[in-house]
Amino acid sequence: MISFSSLLFVCIATAAVLAAPGKYNEKNELVARQSITASETGTISGWFYYFWTDGTGQVTFTNGPGGQYSVTWSGGNWRAGKGWNPGAARAITYSGTFSPVGNSYLAVYGWTTSPLIEYYIVENFGTYNPSTGATKKGSVTS
């Protein structure tokens, strides 16, 4: 198993990426939804979240309970997700809807330290394969 010093689970897309919303967190308490429209990172209910937008379109990242979130948008470039910071070796599961129109990616995103390596494990993509021209450096079993 690969051990990562930091792991951030991120679905990346410029197409529909919707995690199933829920009503309660792990403690069965109501969780207030938090909608974000400008680039921001933080922690909510123990989950690290990351949202970046270049500001050229309309995009809203809405935090849900646990690791859940949803994104709605019209145009622009953005990246969003929730996970752990710092991370550790762990199994992750996720679900959602991905309906790409044009160039977009659905991926697990993370980084390591010592050495610093940023990575994307691409699950699906739209019109452009982001690995085109890339040199294979390893593999991941899922």
Automatic annotation (TrEMBL):
Residues 35-142 form the GH11 domain. It is an enzyme of class 3 (hydrolase). Keywords: Carbohydrate metabolism, Glycosidase, Hydrolase, Polysaccharide degradation, Signal, Xylan degradation. Residues 1-19 form the signal peptide. Pathway: Glycan degradation; xylan degradation. GO terms for biological process: xylan catabolic process. The keyword Signal applies. GO terms for molecular function: endo-1,4-beta-xylanase activity. The keyword Hydrolase applies. Its EC number is 3.2.1.8. It comes from the Eukaryota. It holds the Pfam family Glyco_hydro_11. It catalyses: Endohydrolysis of (1->4)-beta-D-xylosidic linkages in xylans. Belongs to the glycosyl hydrolase 11 (cellulase G) family. This is endo-1,4-beta-xylanase.
